[in-house]
Amino acid sequence: MTETIRTAALAGATLTSGLVAGLFFAFTCAVMPGLAATDDRTLVGTMQSINRKILNGWFLGAFLGALLLLAVTAAAHLTRGGPVLLWTVAALACYLVTLGVTIRLNVPLNDRLEAAGPVDRIADLADVRLWFEAAWVRWNLVRTLSSVAAFACLIAALLTRRG
C-alpha cells in the first residue's frame, strides 16, 4: 500500500473521529445541560426531533466513515508495525466502545423515546423524562470519553508518523 493511501486514511480517520467526538462533546457540555434547565415537554419534544434529524448523510458519513477509515488505517499499517499501528489499534478499540454504546444503549433509548408518541399525546411527560434523561446523559458521557480517546490516539498516531 502506498504512503499516500496510508496518510490519507489516517488523516480521514482523524478528521471523522474528531467530528464524532466533537458532536458527542457538544451534547455533554451544552445540549443536555441546556435541556436539563427546561420543562419536560421541551426536553422530550426536542430530543425526539434531534433523534429524527440526526439520521442524515453528514452524521452517518462521519460516524460510520470513522469506523471504516480506522479499519483501513490499521490494515494499511499492519506490515509496518510501530507506534502508528499501536495508536491506530488503540483508537479503533476506543471507537468500538463508542459504536457499541451508541448502538446498544443510546439508540434504544432514542427508539423508546420515539415510541412514547407525539409530545402532545404523552400522558406523563415527567415519567418519560425520568427514564430517558439520566440514562441517555450517562451513556452519552461514556461515548464522549471513548470517542475523544479515539481522536487523541489518532493525533498521537499522526505525531509519531515517520513518513
Automatic annotation (TrEMBL):
Keywords: Membrane, Transmembrane, Transmembrane helix. Pfam families: Anthrone_oxy. InterPro entries: Anthrone_oxy. The chain crosses the membrane at residues 54-72, 84-103, 141-160. This is DUF1772 domain-containing protein. It comes from Micromonospora peucetia.
